TrEMBL record:
GO terms for molecular function: ATP binding; phosphoribosylaminoimidazolesuccinocarboxamide synthase activity. SUPFAM superfamilies: SAICAR synthase-like (SSF56104). It comes from Flaviflexus salsibiostraticola. This is Phosphoribosylaminoimidazole-succinocarboxamide synthase. InterPro entries: SAICAR_synt/ADE2_N (IPR028923), SAICAR_synth (IPR001636), SAICAR_synthetase_CS (IPR018236). Pathway: Purine metabolism; IMP biosynthesis via de novo pathway; 5-amino-1-(5-phospho-D-ribosyl)imidazole-4-carboxamide from 5-amino-1-(5-phospho-D-ribosyl)imidazole-4-carboxylate: step 1/2. Residues 13-270 form the SAICAR synthetase/ADE2 N-terminal domain. It catalyses: 5-amino-1-(5-phospho-D-ribosyl)imidazole-4-carboxylate + L-aspartate + ATP = (2S)-2-[5-amino-1-(5-phospho-beta-D-ribosyl)imidazole-4-carboxamido]succinate + ADP + phosphate + 2 H(+). Belongs to the SAICAR synthetase family. Pfam families: SAICAR_synt. One of its GO terms (biological process) is 'de novo' IMP biosynthetic process.
């Protein structure tokens, strides 16, 4: 998806790793709130790099999953979604949302230990300052979900894992506690929903913002939620603790990028993805969508 695409009524403002943001060319509000258009492209990122090869229709899958999750979790916390009445050129991959002042803390919740959290645990016995029981193995379920925040970085930079104390210093005690409480509540509900469909939600991340209007308070859930880009999904029928799990997310791409086949040093420009990696990644995204929503995906 080309961020310079001419969309009637909208002007391109900025692009992130995956999404493009547009502002209305004329002041447009919804119930007195400023609006923005968020377009999910087919770009995919890994190890803080945007890869040169898109995953066909990934943006549409992410948007459909996010909208479905907003429906499931709307009673837990408010979100920024307003409408899917978007320009035809981005239909299916875009939504009109409320404009928020985003909180500069990425809210990661982990119910299982794997990936970077496992590496940190093996070195220190803790994750983001949270002490964990001895003897945990790869993919073990944690006694309770943990909140492991990160400081958001600019595109191309690595998000920095931080302690809760550091999060409090960044956004204030009350906001940090609200972020933690709401994130864990969302994770718990989503984990139950996924489990009913035979899927383990190992970990996920949320982003929140504040409303721009004077006198407004409270946090609003923004960005995408609970997609294969922002979460680890495992098939419960294949789950075996003590080893990495087959996943329904972009872990397949991460694994290929760190393999001898890719030859990538994680510093230079990433290589093009071979056809089989693109196809298998798309297949995993579709499976995650269909298993969770119970709907059939049609490109």
């Amino acid at each position: 998806m080309n961020p310079s695409l001419n969309l009637p009524g909208w002007t391109h403002v900025k692009s992130g790793k995956v999404r493009d943001l547009y502002a209305p060319t004329e002041l447009a509000t919804h119930d007195g709130r400023d609006t923005v258009l968020i377009v999910a492209s087919d770009r995919i990122s890994a190890f803080d790099h945007v890869l040169p090869t898109p995953i066909p229709n990934k943006g549409k899958i992410l948007t459909a999953m996010t909208l479905w999750w907003f429906e499931q979790l709307g009673d837990v916390t408010p979100n920024h979604f307003i409408s899917t009445d978007v320009p035809e050129a981005v239909e299916g991959r875009a939504m009109i949302t409320e404009r928020l002042e985003m909180v500069p803390v990425e809210c990661v919740v982990r119910g299982y230990i794997t990936g970077s959290a496992l590496s940190e645990y093996r070195k220190t016995g803790a994750v983001c300052g949270i002490e964990l029981p001895d003897g945990l193995k790869d993919s073990d379920r944690l006694p309770e979900p943990i909140f492991t925040p990160a400081a958001k970085a600019e595109m191309g930079e690595h998000d920095e894992n931080i302690t809760f104390d550091r999060a409090e210093q960044m956004v204030g005690r009350d906001v940090a506690r609200a972020l933690r409480g709401t994130s864990i509540a969302l994770y718990r509900r989503a984990r139950e929903i996924a489990a009913d469909r035979g899927i383990i939600l190992a970990d996920t991340k949320f982003e929140f913002g504040r409303r721009m209007q004077p006198g407004e308070s409270g946090l609003v859930l923004g960005d995408e939620i609970l997609t294969p880009d922002s979460s680890r999904f495992w098939d419960e029928s294949e789950y075996v603790p003590g080893r990495p799990q087959p996943s329904l997310d972009k872990q397949y791409i991460r694994d290929w990028l760190t393999s001898d086949e890719s030859g990538w040093d994680r510093v230079s420009q990433p290589p093009e993805l071979p056809t089989h990696v693109v196809e298998k990644t798309k297949e995993r995204y579709v499976r995650a969508y269909e298993r969770l929503t119970g709907r059939t995906w049609e490109d």
